[in-house]
């Protein structure tokens, strides 16, 4: 079964735009669980422009499903937070400081030694590690040598080609990457620009995906369709 982890960053973006605590980000995490999500994802950035570090601490206190923290592990503040909170999974993303959104995966060849070291830090603390990667054969092969438990396939390229009507072309490099990862003993996550239009086709072609993390599209759909209904609609795409 492919799990759905709901990224609740957009709730925090809305809250921070006005100040105060509306919407309540902790309640958004509780409700995601209540409405059927298999997990909750947060991505705190150094400027705390959406999810704040204290949000992460508060969510940890109430989380009953899987908790996934994404972020840039070159920031010591992020590393310290993850080691303090001890989520079920940490997803390492090579964001630049001030980056609007994640737009590329790790160069696991160039950064292999660094990744081996930092992955070891998290695994020693009992935290499962996933690293954000592009669907490139050499990158996947090198990822398997870092000691990571899983990879997260960066799916923006798939989403763009799918929207352009080229869905078979879109999914092929991801199928190959996922097969190489599976053969290397890696778990497989996926995320970025997945939505109600393209999610089912990805799942049909890579049925062994362990987890998808979806935030922006899901929260946008929830504005029109309702939060609970939207989570259920996404879950159906994964069956």
CATH class: Alpha Beta
CATH topology: TIM Barrel
**Distance, first to last CA:** 7 Å
Helix content: 40-55%
| Order of the strands making up the biggest sheet | 1-2-3-4-5-6-7-8
Please count the helical segments.
11
Low-confidence stretches: none
The number of E-state strands comes to: 8
Mean pLDDT: 95
Give a verbal description of the structure.
- The protein is α/β, with parallel strands linked by helices.
- The protein has one domain (3-237): TIM Barrel (Alpha-Beta Barrel), CATH 3.20.20.70.
- It is built from 11 helices and 8 strands.
- The protein has helices at 9-18, 25-34, 53-62, 76-85, 112-124, 137-143, 156-163, 167-183, 199-205, 216-225, 227-237; strands at residues 3-7, 39-42, 66-71, 89-92, 128-133, 150-154, 187-191, 211-214.
- An 8-stranded parallel beta barrel has the order 1-2-3-4-5-6-7-8, surrounded by 6 helices.
- Strand 3, helix 4 (76-85) and strand 4 form a beta-alpha-beta unit.
- The mean pLDDT is 95.
A few lines on this structure:
The chain is of the alpha/beta class and 239 residues long. It has eleven helices and eight strands.
Chain-wise SSE layout:
Blueprint: E1 3-7, H1 9-18, H2 25-34, E2 39-42, H3 53-62, E3 66-71, H4 76-85, E4 89-92, H5 112-124, E5 128-133, H6 137-143, E6 150-154, H7 156-163, H8 167-183, E7 187-191, H9 199-205, E8 211-214, H10 216-225, H11 227-237
Parallel strand pairs: 1-2, 1-8, 2-3, 3-4, 4-5, 5-6, 6-7, 7-8
Helix pairs in contact: 2-3, 7-8, 10-11
